[in-house]
Each structure stands twice: as C-alpha cells, then as structure tokens.
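Duplicate of #3305? Posting structure anyway:
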C-alpha cells in the first residue's frame, strides 16, 4: 500500500514538474512548432531558384514569385481582401521607370553634362534650356533660408551631413525653390569618388510610384571647383563664408554672386504594374483590429548575365511570412483562431525604394487607424560579419520607438519561448545605416503604427549573386520566424490594443 501511494506521488509530482511554466501558452507552442526547417527550405528553394530570375520588380520572375505566394495563400484558405483587380490576392501597384536623357548644366556658356561632370537627382522635363538665378545659401539651414528670399530662384548649398541636405530639400520645396545645387565632397578628388561609386545609379532608370504628386525640387551634385566657378570665386572663400556665418557675421554670403546659369532636364517615362500579395485571416471578437505581417519578395534581378537570387534578401522573410500564416490557419481550424485579424502581405518594389509598402500605406485595404502593429521581416537567414555575443541572435529595430507595450511583449515572447540574443545595434538613432528608415516597416511607422523590424544584418553576399539558398542557416531562421509568430500571437490575442505612447 505504501509503495502504491509512493508511486502515485512520484507520478503526480512528475506531471506537475513536467508542465511548462505558467507564462508559457501551450497553444502558441503547439502551432509555433508547425514552422519547420523543412517547410521553410522547400519554399525558399523555389523562390530563390534561378527559374525566378532574381524577382526584379515588373519582370517575369517577380510575376512568377507573386503567383507562387498567391497560390500558397489560396491553398491555406486565406481570404483575398482586394476588390476590383484581376485577383483578390493582388493589390496592383502602379509604377513608372524614369530614365534620364539629355541633362546638362550651363555655366557662363560652358556645358557640363550629367554623369560626366555633374550628377542630377530628380525628374521632370524642361523642354529646352532654362535660365536661373542662383543664391548661395551656405549649409541650407533654417537660419540661412530665413535670411534670403529664394522663391522662384535656385540655391547653392554645401553641407556634408545627409540630414542637413534632406532638411534643405524640404525647406526648398516649401519656399518654392526652382533647383538645388549641392557641393558633394570637400575636394574634387572626393567628388570623383562619389561620381565613380554612384554614377550608375544616376544614369540608370529610377522606379517611382506612378501618382500625381507635388513636384519635388531636383538637385545637381557639383564638385567644389564647379561650385566655385558658379559663384566666380574660390572654394576656399565659400568655406570661409560658411564659417563666418557660423561665427555670427551678418550676411557673409552677399559677395558671392552667381554667374549666368542655365540647365536642361530630359527624362523618358515607362509605366509598369507590379503586385503586393495579400492573404487575410479574420479574427473573432476583435476582428476589426488588424495586425499586418510583411516581407518583400522582390529582388534585383539579373545583372551582367548573373542571377541575383536573393535567398536571404528577402526570400528568407517571405517564406517566414508564408509559414507563419500557415501556423495561424492551423490554429483557427482547431478553434484557436486569433481574436484580432491578421493581414499577411508580401510587398513588391522594396528594392526600388519601399514602393510597394508605400502604396499600401497610401491606399490601405484595411484602415490604418484599425492597424494595431506591423511586424516586418527582411533578411533573417544568415549570420552577419559583426562581433556579437552570440550567433543565436536576431536584430530588432523599432520595437520601442512608438509603443512601450510592444517592446515589452517582444522581450517577454523571446524570454519565454525562443531565448535568442536580441541585438539592438541597428535600433540606435545614431547608427550610420539608419535601418529604421530603410525597410517596409517605415511606411507604417511614419503613420504612427507600432512596428518591429526583424533582420540579421548585412553579410558579404548582400546584393550579390552569391546570396543563395545553400548559405542559409535554416535552424536559426526557423527560431527567428518562431519569435515573430509568438509576438504576433500575443498581439492578436491580448485583451487590450497596443497603446502608442511615444512620438
């Protein structure tokens, strides 16, 4: 009798101690386990194959990838939520390719051609050469703009800080500036390096959303000697004038007058249509609120006869979204469906400037005010070349930018389930790569929607034809995808909507 009681006690204690901690949700764990190495590898092997030709936006390979993802969503039973298009799973994204033609700058009758001597960033056609008056504006700061009347005129600035140039462009647009001339580099040698590194970008076609928009102010990048010639002075005097302004000297720019200046712009425009691929899973009692999971499925195509497969960028994020969708569908089939709705969306044209997600944010299928968060996955399949505490990691960006609750949920999901090393290097506002602004989550964040961007950073194969499937760390990729799933599970099933408590 004593033995039986003792045996029962042992078995009972074993049951007690074998149970997961109270913070662990057994349902979440059950469905997270459906996200497997085998499934991720199968889908990625197809999406990053040579047959899809690098998935460049608007090209055949991108269309094939869209069809593959759409079929997956259809087979899962996700709803296609788009009305008025050929397929309810496609949100058509109107685009245009703007290619530069004959563009030049004329200074006192001397012609300086685009790409060869100057670099032009912008668009528009002037229908011939147009004259302009140029005002030297120092660094293009707010104080510089306050001191000068520039409406209908062009400005010349010298600012080595990217943020400073962005601000100057914004102020120029607001005040009706005709054209911006910007000195790039403190010497002609520095400008030559810039010209060599980025000349191809300026000479090739640029893809943009095809929409009516207020005309942006274009920008000619100049070498120091060209800028000095524009003002009939030396570059040394330009730098001294800027220093004098910083030291409080009143109007030190007044002696710097421009020569006779003109320019011509000529562009060709070609319209194309690409597709965001959407699959919708309706929630239960909180179904009007929507969590959006995103990745971009486009890549850069074929260059010089070589296929850029983009296995990590962003095949890895795309197949993660596909597998996470499958996990949530299985939960719903078992009566464990999410309380809030989930939109699974793989977007196009990220490589062209976040255009697919920008189009969705401008033309949302579900109101942005009902969108509780965006979890964006872009490159989670590799180990980058940084010195980190652990290779078992993922880098998070944006989790604490808008919602304290979202950051706490993310941290708890990891400590409870996945125990990855969470790296926040790229989350630093001062980080030179400015990652917070460089993937599709940004088009949600800028609209006040809390975001988390999941990535593992760059690596030697980034944007090279060597970014291939055999280099993917599938075990790590699976763990990272599960972290996204667990975080999403909490967001869609908690009682309260995420509170946005930061600007």
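Output from current build:
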């Amino acid at each position: 009798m004593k033995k039986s009681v003792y045996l029962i006690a042992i078995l009972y204690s074993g049951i007690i101690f074998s149970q997961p901690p109270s913070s662990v949700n057994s349902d979440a764990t059950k469905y997270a386990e459906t996200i497997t190495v085998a499934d991720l590898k199968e889908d990625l092997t197809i999406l990053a194959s040579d047959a899809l030709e690098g998935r460049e936006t608007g090209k055949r390979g991108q269309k094939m990838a869209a069809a593959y993802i759409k079929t997956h969503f259809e087979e899962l039973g996700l709803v296609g939520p788009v009305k008025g298009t050929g397929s309810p799973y496609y949100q058509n994204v109107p685009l245009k390719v703007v290619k530069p033609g004959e563009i030049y700058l004329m200074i006192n009758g001397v012609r300086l051609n685009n790409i060869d001597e100057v670099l032009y960033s912008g668009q528009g056609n002037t229908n011939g050469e147009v004259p302009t008056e140029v005002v030297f504006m120092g660094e293009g700061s707010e104080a510089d703009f306050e001191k000068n009347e520039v409406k209908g005129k062009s400005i010349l600035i010298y600012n080595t800080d990217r943020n400073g140039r962005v601000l100057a462009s914004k102020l120029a647009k607001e005040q009706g500036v005709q054209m911006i001339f910007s000195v790039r580099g403190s010497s002609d040698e520095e400008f030559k390096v810039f010209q060599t590194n980025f000349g191809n970008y300026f000479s090739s076609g640029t893809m943009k959303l095809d929409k009516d928009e207020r005309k942006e102010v274009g920008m000619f990048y100049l070498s120091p000697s060209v800028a000095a010639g524009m003002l009939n002075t030396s570059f040394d005097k330009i730098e001294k004038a800027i220093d004098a302004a910083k030291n409080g000297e009143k109007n030190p720019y007044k002696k710097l007058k421009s020569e006779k200046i003109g320019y011509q712009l000529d562009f060709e425009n070609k319209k194309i249509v690409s597709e965001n691929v959407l699959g919708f899973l309706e929630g239960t009692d909180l179904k009007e609120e929507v969590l959006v999971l995103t990745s971009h499925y486009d890549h850069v195509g074929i260059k010089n006869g070589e296929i850029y497969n983009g296995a990590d960028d962003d095949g890895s994020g795309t197949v993660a979204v596909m597998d996470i969708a499958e996990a949530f569908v299985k939960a719903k089939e078992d009566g464990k469906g999410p309380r809030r709705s989930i939109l699974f969306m793989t977007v196009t044209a990220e490589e062209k400037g976040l255009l697919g997600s920008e189009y969705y944010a401008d033309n949302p299928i579900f109101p942005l005010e009902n969108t509780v968060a965006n979890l964006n996955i872009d490159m989670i399949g590799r180990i980058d070349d940084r010195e980190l505490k652990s290779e078992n990691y993922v880098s998070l960006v944006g989790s604490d930018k808008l919602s304290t609750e979202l950051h706490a949920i993310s941290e708890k999901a990891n400590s409870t389930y996945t125990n990855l090393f969470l790296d926040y290097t790229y989350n630093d506002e001062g980080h030179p790569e400015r990652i917070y602004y460089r993937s599709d989550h940004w088009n949600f964040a800028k609209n006040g929607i809390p975001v988390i961007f999941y990535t593992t950073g760059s690596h030697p194969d980034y944007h090279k034809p060597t970014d291939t499937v055999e280099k993917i760390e599938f075990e790590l990729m699976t763990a990272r995808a599960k972290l996204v799933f667990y975080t999403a599970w909490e967001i869609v099933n908690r009682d309260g909507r995420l509170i946005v408590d930061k600007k």
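Confirmed duplicate; merging threads. Residues 1-22 have pLDDT under 50 and may be disordered. Residues 102-265 form a domain with the Glucose Oxidase; domain 1 fold (CATH 3.50.30.30).
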